[in-house]
Amino acid sequence: MALVKPLDPNHDIETKKLAEFFNETLGFCPNSVLTMQHRPAISKAFINLNKAVMANEGRVTSALKRMIAWVSSNATGCRYCQAHAIRAAERYGAEQEQLDNIWEYRTHPAFSEAERAALDFSLAASQIPNAVNVEIKERLYQHWNEGEIVEMLGVIALFGYLNRWNDSMGTSIEDGAVESAEQYLGKTGWEKGKHDGSRY
């Protein structure tokens, strides 16, 4: 059950305007943002950070950023963020084979060595204790420059916040996110868990 109820999208007009960003990424404003509106300074700061982190600067594509987010969310166990990340990866043009085989990114031929290095970085950085080491660094630098690594860690850190927020809140998951999660993640056991929205 949700810890705090999301507020109406019209509760804070500035947040509502900023949240139009999510209509592109997800097709709806997330309940997490509607919950943050209880303190509008938080909702507005979060959306602006999200936009900055997820901006497409070049080789770290919008689709790869969402797959990095998925690996991070999978590592922490947040079902809500897993569903959102895979939905956004789909909407930003991730290859069908990658979406269908995200669980097997380390071995599946749909993923390049550069993508594997990025996704392993996400996994290592999302673990407790943190598992980023010299091997991870060396693999990253074989494929990516410093600015691109900063972009990746921005995604990982953003989803560290979101994973804590949504799992602690038990944020009710939206229908669109459920559809994407069931399509791509259901075969390996994804379920709504505490995010089922049956009780507030």
UniProtKB/TrEMBL annotation:
Transmembrane segments: none
InterPro entries: AhpD-like (IPR029032), CMD-like (IPR003779)
Record domain Carboxymuconolactone decarboxylase-like: where: 40-120
GO MF terms, alphabetically ordered: peroxiredoxin activity
PANTHER family: CARBOXYMUCONOLACTONE DECARBOXYLASE-LIKE DOMAIN-CONTAINING PROTEIN, SI:CH211-175M2.5
Name of the molecule in the record: Carboxymuconolactone decarboxylase family protein
Lineage of origin: Bacteria, Pseudomonadati, Bacteroidota, Flavobacteriia, Flavobacteriales
